[in-house]
Amino acid sequence: MPPGRFLEIGVGRGRFFEDLINLGFHGLCLDLNAELIAEHQRKETFQSRPVEFKALNFFALDERFSLIVAFEVLEHYEQDLDCLRKWSELLEPGGTLIFSVPAHMRQWTRNDTRAGHARRYERKELLEKLEACGLQIEYFWCYGFPVLNLTYPLSVRLSRPATAEPQVRDNGDARMTDFQKTTDSGNRLLPGFSAWFREPFWLPWLQFQRLFLQADLGTGYLVKCSPKQP
Questions:
Q1: In the prediction, which pLDDT does 160 show?
Q2: CATH (residue range 5-227)
Q3: For 26-74, what is each residue's pLDDT tens digit?
């Protein structure tokens, strides 16, 4: 797709926006965690780049974007249809939405509880919700098989224990399962450790999993879609 203005929802400590900038995009990165946003803002290497970082709820936005990306965001909302409709409203005519969600309730673990997830998705459920919100699918992939299916149990064992009691959502979003857990979910357990494993390390596995993207075997769904034209 041609470069334009992008919106990344739930940037956390991620660096996907760097790929977008290198492709000629400019835009806005949001996260509910103000500390993570401050970390991005403090990095001198980003000060001259065409990207802003804000600790802001996307429901407060009223501008339009040619591209919206939201990786591992939708599952935090009980009212996920409200999210999909809002994302559609924030797209320019002909704009693109790319998002990911965890797949299969049978794979629910304490990581989901700790992160404040409302659900893991099933293919039929997600397809029906996209249809209800007037979104036309270009790609619908189930990613992660086989490598993430093998490594995910290890990440569960390394994760922090889930909080027993729900957190109080004093100034949160009532559409969420748990505002505080969602806000904290961008804090990786071992952020330095993950930096060792860049894309070249995973490239053979990434190429191998392409054989299974149309199967319903992985740990997550990746969707590229756009609003249906009237």
A1: 56
A2: 3.40.50.150
A3: 999 999 999 999 999 888 565 567 899 999 999 999 999 999 999 999 9
Q: Any residues with CB less than 8 A from the CB of 171 and at least 6 apart, and which?
A: 179
Number of neighbouring beta carbons within 10 Å of residue 2: 9
Q: Is the pLDDT of residue 159 over 90?
A: no
Number of residues written out for the chain: 230
pTM here is: 0.87
User: In the chain, where are the structural domains located?
Assistant: 5-227
Secondary structure percentages of the chain, helix, strand, coil, to 5: 40, 25, 35
Q: Which residue pairs, CB below 8 angstroms and at least 24 apart, start in 124-128?
A: 126/101, 126/221, 126/223
Q: What percent of the chain has pLDDT over 90?
A: 63
Token look-up 């994760």 returns: 159
- CA–CA separation, 67 and 108 (whole Å): 30
Tokens of 38: 């401050």
* Neighbour count for residue 92 (Cβ, 10 Å): 15
What is the average pLDDT score of the chain? 86
Q: Where are the alpha helices (DSSP H) in the chain?
A: 16-22, 34-42, 80-89, 110-115, 123-132, 147-158, 179-184, 191-194, 199-209
